[in-house]
Amino acid sequence: MINLTRERGGILDRVWDKVGEVLGGVCEEAWLALDEQGWNRSGGTLTLRGGRIWTGDPARPWAKSVVIRNGFIAGLDGTTTEGRVIDLEGRLVVPGFQDNHCHPQTPFVLFSPQAPMLFACTTLDEVLEEVRRYVAATGSDRYPRFFGWMSPIFPPGVRPTRQMLDAVVADRPCYLVHHSGHEFWANTKALELADVLHRDPPGLPRSCVIHRDPATGLATGYTEESEFANTDGVLLRSVRKDPPLTLPMQALALRYVLEEFSRQGVTAIWTKDGDFSVIDVYEKLLRHDSLPVRTILDVCHTPFGALNDIDRQVDRAARLRMAGLPPGFLRADGAKLLIDMPTDTHQAWLFEPYADGIGGCGFPVFDADVRWEQARRADLLGLTLNFLAIGDRAVDEALGLLERVARENPPRRRRHCVEHAEFVRDVDVPRFRQIDAVPIFNWIGAYPNQAYQEKFAKIMGEERISALYQRWRDLIAAGSPAANGSDFPLAPPDPLAGMHVMVTGKNLEGEPSGGLWPHKHLSIEQALRTYTTHGAYARGEELHSGRVRLGYDADLTVLAEDILADGFDANRLGHVKVSATIVNGHVVYEDFSSKPKTFPPHPRG
Ligand SMILES: [Zn+2]
Question: Residue 551: how many CB atoms within 10 A of its CB?
């Protein structure tokens, strides 16, 4: 069993442990005892020299030293130094990594502390064994919640049942969230406690389906829906016995999670979930001068005609801008709009039917008039539209909506995103460029493990899957400003691991042996751009971020090895260590303990 969650020093384990500490009783005093970091209010002053700096700037791709003053790049290749001087000893400096699709608050909002993630389980028995082990090790006052099971653990046509879970935990409520976040699997106790075993709750949205036994009318234990927070928040809220976390506790937990992003060299994130309530948590960290990444939040999510709420959220976001907070650290001006859902539940919307004959061509989440109204209003409000579009028909639809808002809404600067874009037709490739839309891929999640991949191939067909990776590769090779996201906590927030997949066509274990696509891999520089220059472009921040250029934000990542040197072996890419992460001129993470690996002098200097 390949365990994605245990890779690279147990990135997700560390997050879980830390968040568990917070949930396990560290309270407000711990928050108050935290030192202010001073990362946000005023920029730092620093000199880096003695290595190589890849600037991402075509006009001046390389430098040997950089001076940072008050949070901005103030000098390249100068002879003087300012502030703390860091001797790179041959290390490589690149623009700070940007993770433009992630959900850092998910671990502490939704799941039991230290509960194992279930992505890596390839059979039903493995899932049940993980649940059994956790339940045995925790007190009966805990109602365990798990995350990450994948549909291929069931044969085609078989759905999870409450009885399967009852066999391992019957005495207390327990539920398991699908890795997509949009399907739920509950035991009988959980269904009883939520009072849905016998009948649907009043006001259940159309897109939320509590599957029932046709003979008895009882809930089977399997629930589908198109909006994460809804089932969790409305349907199963009663299952969550833990008291709600206070705002300081949430902020503390978030900071622990973001520390892990810093450890992986990430300097900027974009949460693509539209969980508007977390704005308070991010704002608290920022007010405490302790937000270690530049953050964009999607302020709204438009699941069940919740359009009425957009105005309130946009108003709240506008007040955030006027709140006198340090600029450049927290924006809340994205809108997540759903077109379709994941493939493994046959909910991705396709032009051609699924290969396994189930689910036809999938379906869109909303009717056409609702989709248009959501896009029209969010665009009118000046938000960046982030369409979740997985199937090729959904991508076509997202592009069509973007073309239409540009045509029918008043002119303004627009750069919207298409999230995941797993299946893109040839004819749709140039449309991204024409309307300046940016695809956000999730390369690190491209290959969870072989068993998953085999079942994925059964659902989608081999040909369509190999075309997926080839298309992503081709788009980037052709110069599309495609950016990247980890989709954390679905995968570790680890850009180097994502680049490893892009460049080698294999995961960190070297699978699949033949590579995900037949030939012509991306260069390390092409992969690096998706996390740096293209990331900044996707955010509309390319005039001050994503490059090491005079006057730009001083957000940098220092790598222990020069991954751009000619002698560098690309198969090591995912194993390279981050030596330091610099945000706003402040070192927010550093570990210079691993000796720099140097290579013969580089011809390009
Ligand atoms: Zn996501």
Answer: 9
